[in-house]
Backbone:
């Protein structure tokens, strides 16, 4: 009896409450979105409920493993994820048909489409965390050389799936992979003498490309062979009214969110038609039907989730768990920032769903898999009297 009570206390009830609120929000938003989208007649709500049930089962299984078992499984899972991405390229059209110019999904009846890159993101978090942990165990004395070696290891591990995802092509997921890599690097213990020059150089390169796209596009066309239409998303992001053929989704999204004003038009009150409103543009539906109040509620939920994940990273005494938490935080934060940002013209449009709310089985299962890791960290966390946090891996 006492053992059962202890397990009950170790269960992450706060995360459970947050996921239940996300579930309810997702159901209401998808119910409204499917009434006006291009898929009228299909019931995405029932499918989303089904995937939430499957995701809950994933959490129940994953949380049973402790950090030592995660470390042992990390490379098997990473290898499995890479295998799926490679197989995707060679799979016949009958099970991996190209959709909207991208070959990113397996089509398996009766389950529908499965996107392996959604699971690869979590497998990558485990592989990177395991590498950092093993590296610090081997190199107990940190030097500039050992830190640079660790950076190279992490870069190679990330580059393999990143390259294959970019070849699909899937820009949105590629950016999420880079966000995971960046977040884990920041807590890996690598000296800022390496991080600042490399990331500063990367930021300068990105700014330079953006400058050329806006002011000197002829140079990119001449020397890199970039086509005019490939600049469309950037131009539409900066000035959608002047490029309506590229900025159609953005103009519709701004119109929907703006018309919602403070409290919105109410459930099923959507009047603005937005393609894919049940997936990538679900926040636009929320903004139109529930206004500023509804949008603020959703963003507050994500703030509480990220706060809870950060607290988990700080509470654990195992550096490996901290790296996992940092990877999950980076993944969720970038998803939310990019998805919400693209609907309000803060960022260019990319195909990134809103975590736990947008419709999508692969996306939801991938996110629930990540939450399963957090549940496991909380469930198996032990606090010892007079114990202090291991600071040997800190930056």
Residues:
């Amino acid at each position: 009896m006492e053992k059962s009570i202890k397990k009950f206390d170790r269960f992450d009830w706060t995360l459970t409450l947050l996921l239940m609120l996300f579930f309810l929000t997702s159901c209401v938003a998808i119910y409204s979105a499917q009434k006006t989208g291009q898929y009228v007649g299909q019931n995405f709500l029932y499918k989303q409920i089904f995937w939430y049930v499957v995701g809950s089962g994933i959490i129940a299984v994953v949380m049973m493993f402790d950090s030592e078992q995660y470390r042992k499984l990390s490379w098997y899972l990473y290898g499995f994820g890479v295998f799926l991405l490679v197989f995707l390229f060679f799979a016949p059209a009958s099970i991996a048909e190209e959709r909207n110019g991208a070959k990113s999904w397996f089509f398996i009846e009766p389950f529908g489409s499965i996107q392996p890159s959604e699971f690869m993101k979590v497998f990558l978090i485990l592989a990177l965390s395991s590498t950092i942990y093993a590296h610090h165990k081997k190199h107990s004395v940190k030097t500039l050389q050992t830190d640079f070696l660790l950076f190279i290891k992490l870069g190679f591990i990330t580059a393999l799936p990143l390259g294959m995802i970019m070849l699909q092509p899937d820009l949105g997921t590629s950016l999420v992979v880079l966000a995971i890599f960046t977040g884990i690097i920041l807590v890996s213990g690598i000296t800022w003498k390496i991080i600042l020059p490399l990331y500063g150089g990367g930021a300068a390169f990105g700014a330079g490309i953006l400058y050329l796209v806006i002011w000197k596009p002829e140079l990119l066309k001449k020397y890199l062979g970039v086509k005019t239409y490939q600049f469309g998303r950037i131009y539409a992001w900066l000035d959608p009214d002047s490029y309506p053929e590229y900025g159609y989704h953005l103009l519709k999204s701004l119109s929907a969110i703006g018309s919602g004003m403070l409290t919105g038009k109410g459930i099923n009150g959507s009047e603005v038609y937005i393609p894919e409103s049940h997936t990538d543009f679900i926040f636009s539906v929320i903004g139109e039907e529930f206004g500023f109040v509804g949008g603020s509620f959703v963003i507050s939920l994500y703030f509480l989730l990220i706060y809870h994940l950060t607290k988990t990273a700080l509470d654990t005494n195992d550096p490996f768990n901290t790296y996992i938490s940092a990877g999950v935080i980076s993944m969720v934060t970038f998803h939310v920032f990019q998805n919400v940002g693209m609907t309000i013209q803060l960022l260019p449009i990319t195909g990134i769903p809103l975590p736990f709310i947008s419709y999508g089985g692969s996306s939801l299962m991938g996110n629930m898999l990540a939450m399963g890791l957090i549940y496991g960290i909380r469930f198996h966390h032990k606090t010892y009297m007079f114990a202090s946090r291991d600071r040997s891996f800190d930056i």
Remarks:
- The first strand starts at residue 106 and ends at 108.
